[in-house]
Amino acid sequence: MTEALFLETAECEEQLKEQGERRLNVSDVLKILGVSRSGYINWKKRLPSQRELKKQAIKERILEIYHDSHQNYGAPKITECLKKESETIAEKTVGNYMRELGIKAQYVSNDYISITADMQRSYSKKAYPWDNACIEAFHALIKREWLNRFKIFDYNHAYKLVFQYIETFYNTVRIHSHCGYLSPNEYEEI
C-alpha cells in the first residue's frame, strides 16, 4: 500500500473515531480505495513472480556475503563475489539492493574526521606522502574495516583485535582487488 493510500484510509478512520463510529473493516477500506473485493482477493493470492523470487534470493546472498566480510564489503566486492558464483549482476544493482536492505560498508565517519581535524594523520615526511603509503593505506583499512567498531580498553585488547583481523580475515578470506577479487587462500591455490 502506498503512503498516500495509507494516509487516506487513516484519515477516514480518524473521522469515524471522532464521530463515535466503529473502526473501518476491509469492505470499507476497499470502497475508499476504489478496489473490488475480487481484485483484493486475487492480489492476496498472487504468488511472487520468478523475478521477485530471484531478487529476494540475491538480496539474501548479498546479506550473507556482507556479514561474512564482517560488514566490510561494499557493492564492488559483493558484485565480484556474486560473479564468482556465476551470477550476472551489475554493481549498481548490488548497490541498490544494499540500500534497500539498509546496509553499507564501513567508512571513516565525519565525526572521526572532525575530531582529528587538528591532528596530523600521516606518518610521512612533509610533502612526501609515498614513503609510508603502503602501511598508511593498511592502517586506514584496518581502522575503517575493523578497529573503529570497538571501544579499545588497553594494549592487550588492541593487540587481540589486530591479530584477529589480520590472521582470521585479512590474510585468509578477505578478497583483494589486486588479486583479481580473490582471497589470499584462493590466490595461492591458483
Helical content stands at 55-70%
Count the beta strands. Answer: 0
Q: How would a textbook summarize the main sheet?
A: none
Coarse structural class: mainly alpha
How would you sum up this structure in a few lines?
This protein is mostly helical and 190 residues long. The protein has helices at residues 3-18, 26-33, 37-45, 50-68, 75-84, 91-101, 110-115, 133-145, 155-170, 184-189.
Describe what this molecule looks like in 3D.
This protein is mainly alpha-helical and 190 residues long. The protein folds into three domains: 3-45, no CATH class; 50-101; 110-189, no CATH class. It contains ten helices and no strands. It has helices at residues 3-18, 26-33, 37-45, 50-68, 75-84, 91-101, 110-115, 133-145, 155-170, 184-189. Helix 5 (75-84) packs across helix 6. The longest helix is centred in the first third of the chain and has 19 residues, at 50-68. The protein is elongated and about 75 Å long. It starts with a helix and ends with a helix.
Secondary structure layout plus pairing:
Elements (H helix, E strand, L loop, with lengths): L2 H16 L7 H8 L3 H9 L4 H19 L6 H10 L6 H11 L8 H6 L17 H13 L9 H16 L13 H6 L1
Helix pairs in contact: 5-6
What keyword list fits this structure?
mainly alpha; 3 domains
